[in-house]
User: Fold this.
Amino acid sequence: MLTCKEFLQELSDYLDENVDAEAKAKLSEVIDRALSEGPQTITRNGRTTVVVVGADEWQRKTQRVGNLAEFFAASPLRGSGLRLRRSKEQARKIHL
Assistant:
C-alpha cells in the first residue's frame, strides 16, 4: 500500500511523462496543419495569443519589398498637386 506522499509523487511523475508527450503530439499536429492548411491560431482564455505559420510563409510575409524612397515614389498621391502646409506655431514643450 502506498502512502499519500508516494501516491502523489507517482501521480506527478505519470502526469509529467504523459502530459509532455501529449503536448508534443498536439504541437506537432498544429505544425502539420499550419504547413498544409495555413496559419493556425492558438487562444488562451478565449483570446488569440499565438499564430503558428510555416517558415516559407513567414519569410514571404516579412520580406522587405523596396525601400522608403521607392514607397513614396510609388504613392498614388505623387503628382496629384496635393499641398501640405506646415504649422507656424511653436512646437509644444516636452519633458524627457
